[in-house]
Amino acid sequence: MPLNDSPGINAGKEEDDDITSEMKRSAVYSMTVSEFYKLIKRIESIHASICDNILESYKIPEACNMWIKREVDRKLPFQEKHVKQQASIIGNLEDFGVIKSSLIKEQCDDDGLCVDKIDSRPAVVEFGAGRGYLTQMLADCYGIERVFLVERKSYKLKADRSLRQKESLILERLRIDIEDLNLKAVDSLQGVPYLAIGKHLCGPATDLTLRCCLSEQDSEHNMEQCLGNYSLKGLAIATCCHHLCQWKHYANKKFIVDLGITKEEFHAITWFTSWAVDADHGSDLSVDGRLHLQSMEQEQYVGDANGIEDAVRNMKAVDRAVLGFMCKQIIDLGRMMWARERGLDTQLVKYVPSSISPENHLLIAKHAKCS
């Protein structure tokens, strides 16, 4: 069965066209000043009520020391900020109980004969893999032996060369858009427990990946699949570029609607998220749950032909950034809840300080009954 035999399988059920950033901006700037401030206050209220337990979780596991200390293939590109992000994604997976740092254990039978036993190691499916260096770190530090790199584009300087030098490792590149990927059509993955990972899955790519791993029809049978042949062991997705998110692809529309947010307001919220990454993060800006709305004196803009433009221009940079982070967290929390409704233990954390990357949200999950 060809990999691309299921076009749009993970796209969602909406028939809408994609909404461009310019269209989102125009929608915001067409609001009245009153509507603009009411939406901001509602975002603040929603965030305060549902986003109160997103933890700081910067984890550098001991197993990744060889990368941190640059004791790896010298031909591999090394950028400290990316290495720290990759290591913390892996550290959070270990901390959440999805992978183990000690892969080799000695076991003895009844006769006292001891042998080395390799723990069951999941395959790794890296979505939006790019050059594949997150998988490279997992293979180097945790002994992963089967990997699938999902990427629609072609890259130079890939990790593939180094990965293929590992005699025990089997590598497959799946050159396909996540929107069209049917994992059930990948013969070599059938019945194999796998870990789904992705570093900076831009905009709707996160939603496409969630659907790819947890299809709609699976939700009613997740327990039977978990105890039977269902092979997803866990996932870790570092989200980013929320301004590119699309209503047509978003996994948990019900969550948004139940919050009283319309499709048009969702588009505005995604546009606000760009303000989070526009800020100066040298001081490690964080969301404290409060906007300094007293700095936004909305009355002065009422009746002004350029009211919204002036209101936005005069917002303090910190207020714009905090609002952007709030919107990002609301979007990601909906995704987390969608995975939880499908039988997973889930957690949303800030896996690196914003000074390393403002795109610092990590969705991690594992099957509650498959651990």
Automatic annotation (TrEMBL):
It is an enzyme of class 2 (transferase). It catalyses: cytidine(4) in tRNA(Pro) + S-adenosyl-L-methionine = 2'-O-methylcytidine(4) in tRNA(Pro) + S-adenosyl-L-homocysteine + H(+); cytidine(4) in tRNA(Gly)(GCC) + S-adenosyl-L-methionine = 2'-O-methylcytidine(4) in tRNA(Gly)(GCC) + S-adenosyl-L-homocysteine + H(+); adenosine(4) in tRNA(His) + S-adenosyl-L-methionine = 2'-O-methyladenosine(4) in tRNA(His) + S-adenosyl-L-homocysteine + H(+). It comes from the Eukaryota. Its EC number is 2.1.1.225. Residues 1-20 are annotated as: Disordered. Residues 84-365 form the Methyltransferase TRM13 domain. Keywords: Metal-binding, Methyltransferase, S-adenosyl-L-methionine, Transferase, tRNA processing, Zinc, Zinc-finger. It holds the Pfam family TRM13. GO terms for biological process: tRNA methylation. One of its GO terms (molecular function) is tRNA 2'-O-methyltransferase activity. tRNA methylase which 2'-O-methylates cytidine(4) in tRNA(Pro) and tRNA(Gly)(GCC), and adenosine(4) in tRNA(His). Belongs to the methyltransferase TRM13 family. This is tRNA:m(4)X modification enzyme TRM13. It comes from Hevea brasiliensis (Para rubber tree). The lineage of its organism: Eukaryota, Viridiplantae, Streptophyta, Embryophyta, Tracheophyta.
